[in-house]
Specification:
The chain is built from six helices and 14 strands. By secondary structure, the chain is α+β, with helices and mostly antiparallel strands. Bound molecules: thymidine-5'-phosphate and aspartic acid.
């Protein structure tokens, strides 16, 4: 977790932490820095709404209790040091790597893993590397993959109803009592959202690519999920 954008505090109970969402924004492994006013509130509230929806559909998450606009109590987890990325439509690094035009609908959703290591620039890693390095067991890897695709189906359907295409997203998973649970935010920082009618970008790409109207689209996404 990039500590700049979220702060994590211990509580008196080692089973729980408090995550505090800030307005600081970084991109490209911290190379680009800025502030997105109101982002912390949007990400906190939106992530919690998403976690509740996923919990209702059988996905266990770290969410315990929203304390206020920016702070949430979460379960203490042992983070699996992987960024798990799902893509429904080509964009970003996928488009660049494979020379596929952004917006090309993929024939099926894809999954990719990146090793969480800032010094190495979060390199992509495959299933065999994950097993070879002991980052997860075979059973965990299977669970993580299945869970991530299920999360994709649930999120895709949810966003479709509010006029948003889920292009891709990144999640992190963690272990609690030997079980794998969702342990990260789901927000415009970590997903690509395009308006279903106009394809307008409603996510952090507006910040990454200096497209303007950054604050407005974060508010727009919160408005759509709270309607
Ligand atoms: P990418 O196209 O840059 O690989 O990004 C894929 C998705 O993952 C996109 O929705 C943004 C999200 N993401 C993060 O949340 N954190 C990161 O550090 C990166 C590189 C991507
Ligand atoms: N937040 C990540 C960073 O700090 C990357 C991104 O979202 O583009 O580099």
């Amino acid at each position: 977790m990039k500590e700049k954008q979220k702060k994590v505090y211990r509580t008196e109970d080692p089973k729980y932490y408090i995550v505090s969402y800030k307005d600081d924004a970084t991109a490209f492994n911290g190379e680009k820095k800025g502030t997105i006013v109101g982002k912390g509130v949007v990400n906190n509230r939106m992530s919690n709404i998403m976690c509740k929806m996923l919990e209702e559909n059988g996905i266990e998450t770290h969410l315990v209790e929203e304390l206020n606009d920016r702070d949430t109590v979460v379960k203490a987890v042992e983070i699996v040091p992987l960024e798990v990325i799902v893509r429904n439509v080509a964009a970003g690094s996928f488009s660049k790597r494979f020379g596929i035009e952004e917006g090309t609908v993929l024939k099926n959703p894809t999954i990719e893993f990146c090793l969480k290591d800032d010094a190495l620039g979060d390199p992509m890693i495959n299933d065999y590397h994950i097993l070879a390095l002991g980052i997860a067991t075979e059973e965990e890897l299977k669970t993580m993959t299945e869970m991530t695709f299920k999360i994709n189906e649930l999120l895709k359907a949810y966003f479709e109803k509010i006029g948003v295409k889920l292009i891709d997203f990144k999640i992190e998973l963690g272990r609690v009592d030997g079980k794998i649970i969702l342990a990260d935010e789901i927000s415009p920082d970590t997903c690509r959202f395009w308006d279903a009618e106009t394809n307008k970008k409603l996510d952090k790409d507006r910040f990454r690519r200096d497209l303007g109207g950054v604050e407005e689209v974060y508010q727009e996404m919160l408005k759509r999920v709270t309607k």
